Amino acid sequence: MITAASEGRAAGSAWYNFLEEPINPRAMAMGSAGTALGCGGASFYNPAALSLRKAPYIAFEFGKLYDDLGRGYLETGWLFPGWFTGLSFQSQSVQFQYATEQGKVDSYGLQQSAAGSLTGGFRKNNFALGVGINGIYDRLAGSSSWGFSLSGGAVYSLIPGVLDIGAAYMHGYGRGTGYLDTTNALHNNQLPSSARIGTAFQHSINGNFPFVISADFVYNTNYEKLTVPLGVEMWVLPALAVRLGKQFNHPADLFSAGVGLQWENLKFDASFVPFRLVSETNVKWSIGLTYELASVAENKGRKAASAEQKSPAVPVIESEPVKPADEETQAQEKPDSIPPENTGALAPEEGKEQSGSLAPDSTSDSVPADSINESQEENKEPDETRDGEQPGGEDGLKEENVGGEAGFNQSPESGL
Predict the structure, then answer these.
(1) In this predicted structure, what is the pLDDT of residue 302?
(2) What is the CA radius of gyration of the chain?
(3) Cα separations (Å) of 25 from 37, 79, 89?
(4) What's the whole-number mean pLDDT along residues 133-162?
(5) Under DSSP, is residue 389 helix (H, G, I), strand (E, B) or coil?
(6) At 101, is the pLDDT very low, low, confident or very high (cuts 50, 70, 90)?
(7) Stated pTM of the model
(8) What is the DSSP letter of 253?
(9) pLDDT band for position 69 (50/70/90)?
(10) Do 102 and 75 touch, CB atoms closer than 8 A?
(11) How far apart are CA 366 and CA 416, in angstroms?
(12) Where are the domains of the chain?
């Protein structure tokens, strides 16, 4: 809702005060303590908190604020080695009935507000610094105004994955046009600036119930008021989280609650914030869907693993030249039972046929060569009967070789 601006700096007179409404259902359920939470909503909590995300994401949010005032919010964030960037857009609209001194008339007007934010920054080790530029548009009935603002913030991980701290100054500088000014000149109008500092602690109970405790200190320059958002989140089941929170010293919000569901990369969040205006009590609610994509590092790891599976590294082994199959087979099958020196003791088959003598029966072919050698040795006469010749002498060998062919055919004692 818009409060008319004045030349002074009266409390609550800032332009574009729809920017003061918290966003992101997870943070809203935790009392809007999101300065160091890394839950999303970088355009409201802290531009540098985007660096606390673990993977790129796309988030959509829809909810109801006051009476018929509805809001839609779309956000995406991308993380890279050493830097990050994000983009968001929100829109609020409400239809109201005109009234005069005589009462309400049968005529309606539209209040529509919108803001788009571009966020970016860098991170090194445990530190990240981010800035955001916001484009703002606000329309009330037939008048409208547009402008821009700048935000900045930082986060530092004291204990990575356990304890983070953050600080931000939102909408600290900006310009805007007047609602009734047709020149579109930019003026130094008061913006709903806020200074934030906060911390988030993450741990688990016995390793089974992860939880997060987040706390902020927020000073709102529009109302010149200090509030203390505090919230807690616990995953009671692997896919179910419950959240509670409260903004201490807030003029309207009583407390906040919500739930979170997660299925693989898809997350569902819902928040409910009862509030009281004067004597009327109502509930603000918001629901959101977030889809997390694989990070750049995970993509590289998956690609490397996929490449290894498709083409595993095969060690190159230098082997000796392979012999031809015929030569290798012949070398293995060649019998070594007949020494070369004994081949002369057997008459050639051709000689047997030419002598016309009785050929040995077919069983002689299967007699082992060792048996032939032993038979030949047994039939040899003792060396003493050969006039003192030494065993194995040349004369003895000649005599055996000379009579080999005839003896093979004539002597039945040859063992063949």
Answers:
(1) 56
(2) 49
(3) 13, 22, 15
(4) 93
(5) coil
(6) low
(7) 0.69
(8) B
(9) confident
(10) no
(11) 11
(12) 17-297, 334-414
Phi, psi at 94, each rounded to 5°: -155, 145
Q: Is 344 in contact with 404 (CB distance < 8 Å)?
A: yes
pLDDT of residue 309: 61
Fold for the domain defined by 17-297: Porin (2.40.160)
Amino acid at 113: S
Element (H, E) at 332: helix 325-333
**CB burial class (10 A; 0-12, 13-18, 19+) of residue 99?**
exposed
Over the range 247-267, which residues count as b (16 or more CB within 10 Å of their CB) and which as e? beebeebeebbbbbebeeeeb
Name the residue type at position 142. G
The Cα-based distances of 66 to 26, 94, 289 in angstroms read 19, 9, 22
Question: What is the largest distance, in Å, between two alpha-carbon atoms of the chain?
Answer: 164
Ordered alpha helix ranges (H), 311-357: 325-333, 349-355
SS3 call for 145:
strand
Whether the CB-CB separation of 199 and 214 falls below 8 Å is answered with: yes
Q: How many CA atoms lie within 13 A of 406 on its CB side?
A: 5
Q: Which of 201-210, 300-309, 406-415 has the highest mean pLDDT?
A: 201-210
Contact 95, 80 (CB under 8 A): no
